[in-house]
Design a protein that fits this description.
- The structure is a single chain.
- By secondary structure, this protein is an alpha/beta fold.
- The chain is built from 13 helices and 14 strands.
- The radius of gyration is 28 Å and the shape is globular.
- The strands form three sheets. Strands 1, 2, 3, 4, 7, 13 and 14 form a seven-stranded mixed β-sheet that branches. Strands 10-9-11-8-12 form a five-stranded mixed β-sheet, covered by helices on one side.
């Protein structure tokens, strides 16, 4: 090999090394850039939730944007949810629960305080809804839960059958509607609503004497009741078949579903008030990625996701700006067009003794 050929080959080899080094440096820059764009890439969020709260329409876009995976475990009842959270078999980063249960979880250190300053959409929450909720989820000036969805428990009235205006829960005790009254098979809600009718100021903190009055009032009602129903479909079928003309409902969506079938059903919030549940997002005490969880909560309470939730489930949303993404009909159906709606509602809270209420209700049904 001549000196000239040797030098040429050495030059080519050196050039290739430079090119490869440059490529390697670009790859490093790309990876660094990607890491900055998606700092949570590869992380997972373990969520304990109710059905309907973690739908693909809004979960998948978040997963794709942040490069994360949302793993969801569903619970079918309040007791099942608490059992799953308390068992410790899986550490949940995010737990959805009714506001009345937050105290119970907090006492067992299953959840942690939330820094609301990290949630840019927090200021968009419906003010009077947030005020009601805060009284049950803020302890020692620390917020432990963020509202996510809500629903009232109103009365439904078939206006083709009942012409006069219905304004009080006492209609469910009116003998002229005997055999045409439907009401739910639910201990706590029955006790609380009857307490409202009787004028007790705090339907979730009743004395033994007040509980006895509630029991006697429910026993008085029993001969008038067509059926104690369980579940949305059972209740709707009672109204749709004409077996019931008025009903204590499990939520406004029962009414709007019947209206969609062409029935002339009116929603009534009685003068004594009606119950409202507010489900909240809470952060698990042992989460490893709190900043990621804040990103997810903030996303879930955004006006865009809240509008999707309203349209998908029929539940009320918590972001006042979500109405901008709803049609007038959708806003009216979900009561997002009426800021005063919450002023007539009573928060579903943790009762003085749940077991006693179940016992009371079973005694009523056994009469």
């Amino acid at each position: 090999m001549t000196r000239s050929n040797w030098l040429n080959k050495l030059f080519v080899a050196g050039l290739m090394l430079v090119v490869l080094a440059a490529c390697g440096n670009n790859k490093g820059v790309d990876e660094e850039s990607s890491s900055k764009d998606k700092p949570y890439a590869g992380k997972e969020i373990n969520v304990l939730s109710w059905e309907g709260y973690q739908e693909d329409e809004w979960v998948t876009p978040f997963e794709e944007e942040y490069g994360v995976k949302v793993n969801v475990t569903y619970a079918g009842s309040v007791d099942e949810m608490f059992s799953k959270a308390a068992s410790g078999s899986l550490k949940y980063d995010l737990i959805f629960m009714d506001g009345g249960s937050v105290t119970r979880y907090n006492k067992l250190n299953l959840i942690q305080p939330i820094d609301v300053s990290k949630l840019k959409h927090y200021g968009d929450l419906i003010p009077n809804m947030k005020s009601i909720n805060d009284s049950h989820v803020v302890f020692d000036s620390k917020t432990f839960a963020i509202p996510f969805a809500w629903g009232s428990l109103p009365m439904a009235v078939n206006k083709d059958k009942i012409k006069e205006p219905i304004t009080s829960w006492s209609a469910l005790w009116d003998s002229k509607y005997k055999g045409k009254i439907g009401t739910m098979d639910d201990a706590s809600n029955q006790v609380a609503t009857t307490a409202l009718l009787l004028g007790f100021s705090d339907p979730y903190n009743l004395t033994p004497e007040q509980l006895d009055q509630v029991k006697q009032k429910l026993i008085e009602q029993k001969p008038l009741v067509r059926s104690y129903y369980t579940g949305f479909e059972d209740g709707k079928n009672l109204m749709a078949s004409g077996e019931a003309w008025l009903m204590f409902t499990q939520g406004p969506t029962m009414i709007t579903d019947l209206q969609a079938q062409g029935m002339n059903i009116e929603e009534v919030i009685p003068k004594e008030g009606a119950l409202v549940w507010i489900d909240n997002a809470t952060i698990g005490a042992d989460t490893k990625n709190p900043d990621l969880i804040y990103e997810y909560i903030n996303y879930l309470i955004s006006s865009e996701v809240q509008a999707q939730l309203i349209k998908k489930t029929g539940y009320g949303g918590v972001n006042k700006l979500s109405v901008e993404n709803l049609t007038p009909e959708e806003a009216k159906k979900s009561h997002m067009d009426d800021a005063s709606y919450f002023d007539r509602l009573v928060y579903v809270a943790s009762p003085e003794n749940f077991e006693n209420r179940v016992k009371l209700w079973n005694e009523v049904k056994a009469q």
